[in-house]
C-alpha cells in the first residue's frame, strides 16, 4: 500500500495539476495569461480581448475581436425572469454577491452536467454566465439602494457598461481605469476560489454549480473581501503621520494588515504597482494619502519585523481605484468578481477536459475507540 504524502497547511507550494491558462511567479513578481505579461495586457488591451485570450488561447485579430465583443454584448442583458427574482429577494441590506448566488442558481435550473456537453456548448455556457454577471451585480446594487436597474447596452464595452449600469458613470477615463483593473484580475493561479471551482468541475458538474462553489470561497474576507477592508484601513489611519503607531498597534495585537502581504509574491505585487500608476493620474487627496500610507506601512513593517518583506498587494490600490471611479465599498468585491468569473469559467472548462476527479486524502488526528 502506498503511503499518502502529507501536504503542508494550505497546500502551499503543492502542484495539483497542469494548466495552460497562466502562471504566477512569486519570487519574480510576475504573472501571465497564456504566456502574455498580464500587467502589460491590462495596460494595452480591452477586457474582451484579454477574455478571448484566456478562453481561446490567443489574442484576437480585428475581425475576431469585434465578433467576440459583439457576442459578449448579446449575452450581457439580464433575462426578465431573473430580474423579477432579484426584485423579489433584494432588500436594503442585501449584499450584491449574495444576490449573485441566487441569480446564478436560478440561471442554472435545467443545466446539464458539463461532462455530458460537447465542447461548443460548454464554451457557450462559460460565456453566458460570465457575460451576465456584471448585469446581475449592478442590478442588485441599484435595487438595494431603491433605484431602478439600468438595462445593459450590448454595443458598449464590457467594463464601461458595467460601470454605467452600477453607478451611471459614463466617463471614458473612469471606464479605462476600471478596465485596467478588471484585466489585471481575470486570473491569478490556483487561488482559493479558482481551486474550489475546479474541484467541483472535476466531478463533471454543471457550470452554475462550479461557479457557486468558486463564489462561496471568494466571499471569504481573506480572499475577495479584501479591497474594502484595505480602504477601511486608510480611513482608520487618516493622517499618514499616524501610520507608524497604527502599524505598531496591529503588530502588537498580532492582527493582519489588510492590503499588505501575499500568499505567493515575495516582492512587490505587479498588479499593485500597475494600479498605483493608474490611480496616480487622478491626483486626489485619497490617492496622495494612499501613497504616503503605503510607504509608511512598508517602513513600519521593516522596522518591527525586519526581513518579513510585506508589500502592498492588489487589494490596497484596488479599493482606491474603485473609489475614484465612483464605486462604493459595497461594490468592491462584486467588481473583483466581474473579472474573476471569466477566470473561473476558463478554469472550469480546462478541468472538465482533464476528466479526472480531484480526491485527495486527509490524515486522521482524532481518537480511536
Automatic annotation (TrEMBL):
Keyword check for Membrane: no
Reaction(s) catalysed by this chain's protein: oxaloacetate + acetyl-CoA + H2O = citrate + CoA + H(+)
Active site feature: 262, 315
Biochemical pathway: Carbohydrate metabolism; tricarboxylic acid cycle
GO cellular component, one term: cytosol
Molecular function in Gene Ontology: citrate synthase activity
Keyword Transferase in annotation: yes
UniProtKB keywords: Transferase
Gene Ontology biological-process entries: carbohydrate metabolic process; tricarboxylic acid cycle
Matching Gene3D superfamilies: Citrate Synthase, domain 1, Cytochrome P450-Terp, domain 2
Similarity field: Belongs to the citrate synthase family.
Cross-referenced PANTHER family: CITRATE SYNTHASE, CITRATE SYNTHASE 2-RELATED
Protein name: Citrate synthase
Annotated organism of origin: Tsukamurella tyrosinosolvens
Amino acid at each position: 500500500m502506498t503511503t499518502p504524502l502529507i501536504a503542508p497547511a494550505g497546500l502551499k507550494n503543492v502542484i495539483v495539476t497542469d494548466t495552460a491558462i497562466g502562471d504566477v511567479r512569486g519570487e519574480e513578481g510576475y504573472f501571465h495569461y497564456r504566456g502574455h505579461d498580464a500587467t502589460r495586457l491590462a495596460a494595452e488591451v480591452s477586457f474582451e480581448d484579454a477574455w478571448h485570450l484566456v478562453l481561446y488561447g490567443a489574442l484576437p485579430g480585428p475581425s475576431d475581436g469585434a465578433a467576440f465583443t459583439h457576442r459578449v454584448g448579446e449575452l450581457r442583458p439580464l433575462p426578465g425572469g431573473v430580474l423579477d427574482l432579484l426584485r423579489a429577494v433584494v432588500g436594503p441590506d442585501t449584499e450584491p454577491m449574495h444576490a449573485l448566488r441566487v441569480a446564478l442558481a436560478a440561471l442554472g435550473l435545467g443545466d446539464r452536467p458539463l461532462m455530458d456537453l460537447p465542447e461548443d456548448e460548454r464554451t457557450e455556457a462559460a460565456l453566458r454566465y460570465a457575460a451576465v454577471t456584471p448585469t446581475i451585480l449592478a442590478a442588485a446594487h441599484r435595487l438595494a439602494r431603491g433605484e431602478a436597474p439600468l438595462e445593459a447596452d450590448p454595443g458598449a464595452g464590457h467594463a464601461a457598461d458595467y460601470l454605467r449600469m452600477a453607478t451611471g458613470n459614463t466617463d471614458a477615463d473612469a471606464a479605462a481605469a476600471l478596465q485596467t483593473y478588471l484585466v489585471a484580475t481575470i486570473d491569478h493561479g490556483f487561488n482559493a476560489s479558482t481551486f474550489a471551482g475546479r474541484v467541483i468541475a472535476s466531478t463533471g458538474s454543471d457550470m452554475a454549480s462550479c461557479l457557486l462553489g468558486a463564489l462561496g470561497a471568494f466571499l471569504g474576507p481573506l480572499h475577495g473581501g479584501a479591497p474594502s477592508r484595505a480602504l477601511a484601513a486608510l480611513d482608520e489611519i487618516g493622517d499618514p503621520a499616524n501610520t507608524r503607531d497604527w502599524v505598531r498597534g496591529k503588530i502588537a495585537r498580532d492582527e493582519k494588515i489588510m492590503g499588505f502581504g501575499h500568499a505567493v509574491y515575495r516582492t512587490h505585487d505587479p498588479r499593485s504597482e500597475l494600479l498605483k500608476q493608474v490611480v496616480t493620474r487622478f491626483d486626489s487627496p485619497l490617492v496622495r494619502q494612499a501613497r504616503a500610507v503605503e510607504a509608511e506601512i512598508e517602513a513600519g513593517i521593516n522596522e518591527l519585523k525586519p526581513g518579513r518583506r510585506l508589500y502592498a498587494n492588489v487589494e490596497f490600490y484596488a479599493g482606491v481605484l474603485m473609489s475614484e471611479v465612483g464605486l462604493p465599498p459595497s461594490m468592491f468585491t462584486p467588481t473583483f468578481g466581474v473579472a474573476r468569473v471569466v477566470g473561473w469559467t476558463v478554469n472550469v472548462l480546462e478541468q472538465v477536459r482533464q476528466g479526472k476527479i480531484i480526491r485527495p486524502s486527509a490524515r486522521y488526528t482524532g481518537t480511536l475507540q
